[in-house]
Write a structure and sequence with these properties.
There is one protein chain. This protein is of the alpha/beta class. Helix content is 37%, strand content 22%. The chain has 10 helices and 10 strands. The strands form 2 sheets. The protein has a 6-stranded mixed sheet with strand order 6-7-8-3-9-10, sandwiched between helices. The chain has a 4-stranded antiparallel sheet with strand order 2-1-4-5, with helices on one face. α3 packs across α5 and α3 packs parallel to α6. The protein is globular, with a radius of gyration of 19 Å. The chain binds adenosine-5'-triphosphate. Adenosine-5'-triphosphate binds next to β2 and α1. InterPro entries: AAA+_ATPase, ABC_AA/LPS_Transport, ABC_transporter-like_ATP-bd, ABC_transporter-like_CS, BCA_ABC_TP_C, P-loop_NTPase. This is ABC transporter ATP-binding protein. One of its GO terms (molecular function) is ATP binding.
Length: 263
């Protein structure tokens, strides 16, 4: 297992869209090697936060750092290469085999240049072989091993969503940003994904920041929870503490958090 990742610090992030404050002075820390959930009702600012962390949105104020490394304002590819990878809510993977898609994830780690690869120089061929072997290991870890050579188009919805997860893991991230990893999955697929996430965190020792509407899953998987409402942090702490918080219950319009969808 690799060494523990540095903490991911979010400090005083504010994002405004025209007259609307999507994030209002938001601060939290993803502790090394933990699973941290970011939850809140629709429009609370969760996606905006992910967009800031992955470099898609520049905040009006505030900073994001991974340990000592400042990430605020860096371009998407730079943030990814510094160890922060993300998955997207909607599956984008439809073409190629599972292996092809995982190799795309390895692309940014390739040292061999285009010319060396095109000319099939021995060093480039060796490097490709190593990347493919690592992609296979990650496929095994995420339960996709037997599907490595299968076209993604033929996979079930749950497996395709796991290809997206495995592709992000192929970047060898230290922090993984997971945007609704079980959205649209059936009960069996959800349970399988929870298992895979636990294995991945244990085996790879990375930190995970999770946005997920499935409260039962969040409560089972996360060690820390940050709750947003209208861009503000309204509660933070261990799942049972957050769940009992009156303001959190109010934000969810009286719907007790535990009675939402179950995996
Ligand atoms: N590009 C944008 N331009 C204008 N307003 C935006 C933009 N992106 C988000 N918003 C607004 O910012 C607020 C926060 O949206 P965001 O998508 O971050 O919430 P969310 O918590 O991810 O919601 P959901 O759970 O529905 O995905 C919302 O009021 C949304 O309408």
């Amino acid at each position: 297992m690799s060494t523990a990742p540095p903490p991911l610090h979010v400090r005083g992030i504010t994002v405004r869209f025209a007259g609307l404050t999507a994030l209002d002075d938001l601060s939290f820390t993803v502790a090394p090697g933990t699973i941290h959930a970011l939850i809140g009702p629709n429009g609370a600012g969760k996606s905006t936060c992910f967009n800031v962390l992955s470099g898609l949105t520049r905040p009006d104020s505030g900073t994001v750092s991974l340990g000592e490394q400042e990430l605020t304002g860096l371009p998407v590819h730079k943030i990814a290469s510094l160890g922060v990878a993300r998955t997207f809510q909607n599956i984008v993977v439809t073409a190629g085999t599972v292996g092809d898609n995982l190799m795309l994830g390895r692309h940014t780690l390739s040292r061999a240049g285009f010319a060396a690869s095109a000319l099939r120089l021995p060093s480039a061929v060796r490097e490709q072989r190593e990347h493919r072997a690592r992609a296979r290991e990650i496929a095994e870890l995420t339960g996709l091993g037997p599907l490595f050579d299968s076209p993604v188009a033929l996979l079930s919805y749950g497996d395709r969503k796991r290809v997206e997860l495995a592709r992000a893991l192929c970047l060898e991230p230290r922090v993984l940003l997971l945007d609704e990893p079980v959205a649209g999955m059936n009960g069996g697929e959800r349970a399988r994904t929870v298992e895979v996430l636990r294995t991945v965190r244990e085996e790879l020792g990375l930190s995970v920041l999770l946005v997920e509407h499935d409260m039962a899953l969040v409560m089972r998987l996360a060690e820390d929870v940050t709750v947003l409402d209208f861009g503000r942090r309204i509660a933070a702490g261990a799942p049972d503490v957050v769940q009992a918080d009156p303001e959190v219950r109010r934000a969810y319009l009286g719907a007790p958090a535990t009675e939402e969808r179950t995996p």
